[in-house]
Design a protein that fits this description.
The chain has 3 domains: about 10-210, Beta-Lactamase; about 230-295, no CATH class; about 300-460, no CATH class. It is about 30% helix and about 20% strand. It is built from 13 helices and 18 strands. It has helices spanning about 10-15, 30-45, 60-70, 75-80, 110-115, 130, 135-140, 190-225, 295-300, 335-345, 350-360, 365-380, 415-425; strands spanning about 90-95, 100-105, 145-150, 160-170, 175-185, 235-240, 245, 265-270, 275-280, 285-290, 305-310, 315-320, 325-330, 385, 390, 395-400, 430, 460. The strands form 5 sheets. Strands 2-1-5-4-3 form a 5-stranded antiparallel β-sheet, sandwiched between helices. Helix 4 packs antiparallel against helix 8 and helix 11 (about 350-360) crosses helix 12. It comes from Kitasatospora cineracea.
């Protein structure tokens, strides 16, 4: 991340061409995600001239982290797609874990020297908090593709680079598996770099998905002979809940494991199946329903606790507990936005108001209804309509990050930006937090406008 000229000028000399604008934003119009990142780093007190002392994984820690991510299997396909045999690499390829730790870095000798000059190397912690606004750190924090060009970097020493970071999702869980980053000299706009990085990330996810299917097939070869000996209904699923084989019961594509996994087995309540005996089997679980398949989610609306955990910016989690049991789900970024708005507005919101809150366009109701339809597959009767709302008898809590500006940081929805500002200003508390009462479903505060020009903070627990 460093060169500014196409010749052999040393990296440090090339930095003299960068205008002397320390922590001031670039003079051209700043994109919202860059402005938010710079503001956050100013609050953290990061010096744009000096940064922080570099932090690196020890060699043994680096090898252990590489094995834990499972991303090594994507390297061959990335190398073959990005680098031709015997040709000089036009970019730097970096693969990082969800904490923005650089695990692998590949390029030619020339660019590697420039990368080494700023500490961009395997084992380096490349988060925003450590090295300022950059493609890897921004993508890891927001879980969205992020481009950072030249003077958009917070640290002066990085402004000779353009970098594009794209999150890679684990196909088993939907959680962030890592970040693919492509970086090159900031000598031009590099219009191809973002599309190339997006393609590389999709290739990586395809490779991870193929690996998962192979693992399911291996589990299936163990499961099928075993299930043939059972007289009753049973399923075999992998560690993430994906069905490898089933007998006597329609096997859903995936079971929702309870929060904290199934431990060492025992009796657990499983959505759509009811109470089940669960025991470990090979690399998965043997699941035997103890009763006929109930309409489980419908009865949860009577007494349920819904918890939306947004403390990990890149990995929101929805947890539901009821009299029958508990389950968890990793919502998509859009579903997390919808759940947050519905948790803050217990009286409910129309499709038009949700469209205005998310897109600043009340006409985009078709998109909103489609997303809510998908969300209802996970919530069942806990999600009601006309207007859209969470069931009134359900207790709803939202767990937010310590820094309000880390609340769904990848979201550009007008209403979410309003929520961040209201939390930071002390005008709003998230429902269910200590010191804040659960807002009643009939609260008049819930009638405040969303995404409107009035700038009124969203409802929730006001202070």
């Amino acid at each position: 991340m460093q060169r500014t000229d196409g010749g052999g000028t040393p990296a440090r000399a090339s930095l003299r061409a960068v205008p002397p604008q320390s922590c001031e934003p670039p003079q051209h119009p700043q994109r919202p995600e860059i402005g938010d990142s710079w503001a956050r780093l100013r609050r953290l007190g990061l010096d744009p001239e000096r940064g922080r002392p570099a932090r690196h994984l020890r060699p043994a820690e680096l090898e252990e982290t590489r094995r834990a991510t499972g991303l090594e299997q994507v390297l061959p396909v990335l190398r073959s797609a990005l680098f031709g045999p015997g040709e000089p690499a036009p970019v730097v390829l970096a693969v990082a874990d969800p904490k923005a730790r650089v695990l692998w870095l590949e390029t030619d000798r020339r660019l590697r020297r420039d990368a080494d000059a700023i500490g961009f190397e395997p084992g380096a912690l490349w988060s925003e908090d450590e090295v300022g606004t950059n493609g890897i750190g921004l993508a890891a924090r927001t879980a969205r593709p992020s481009t950072v060009h030249s003077a958009e970097h917070y640290l002066r020493s990085h402004r000779g680079w353009t970098c594009v970071g794209v999150p890679v999702r684990d196909p088993r869980t939907g959680r962030l598996a890592g970040v693919i980053d492509l970086s090159g000299p900031a000598t031009g706009d590099h219009p191809y770099l973002r599309q190339l990085a997006l393609t590389a990330a999709r290739l990586a996810e395809t490779e991870l998905r193929a690996g998962h299917l192979e693992a399911l097939h291996r589990l299936r070869t163990v499961a099928v002979p075993l299930l043939a000996r059972f007289g009753g209904p049973a399923l075999v699923v992998d560690g993430a809940g994906w069905t490898a084989a089933a007998t006597g019961v329609p096997g859903p594509p995936r079971l929702a494991p309870p929060p904290g996994d199934w431990g060492s087995g025992g009796v657990h309540w499983v959505p759509t199946l009811g109470e089940c005996a669960v025991e470990p089997l090979a690399d998965g679980w043997l699941v035997r329903p103890a009763a006929p398949r109930p309409a489980a989610l419908a009865e949860q609306a009577g007494a349920a606790a819904v918890e939306l955990d947004l403390r990990r910016p890149a990995d929101p989690e929805l947890r539901v507990r009821g009299s029958a049991g508990a389950w968890s789900h990793s919502p998509s970024p859009r579903h997390a936005e919808l759940l947050l708005l519905l948790a803050l507005h217990r009286d409910g919101l129309s499709a038009a108001r949700l469209a205005e809150a998310l897109f600043a366009d009340p006409a985009r109701t078709v998109t909103v209804r489609a997303e809510l339809s998908r969300l209802r597959r996970h919530l069942g009767a806990l999600l009601e309509a006309r207007p859209y709302r969470l069931a009134a008898r359900a207790e709803v809590a939202v767990l937010g990050p310590d820094d309000p500006y880390d609340l769904l940081p990848g979201s550009a929805a007008p209403a979410v930006r309003e929520v961040r500002a209201a939390l930071a200003g002390g005008a709003l508390r998230l429902p269910g937090r200590s010191g804040g009462a659960q807002p009643p479903a009939s609260s008049s505060a819930n009638s405040s406008s969303l995404g409107s020009s009035s700038g009124a903070p969203p409802s929730g627990t006001t202070v």
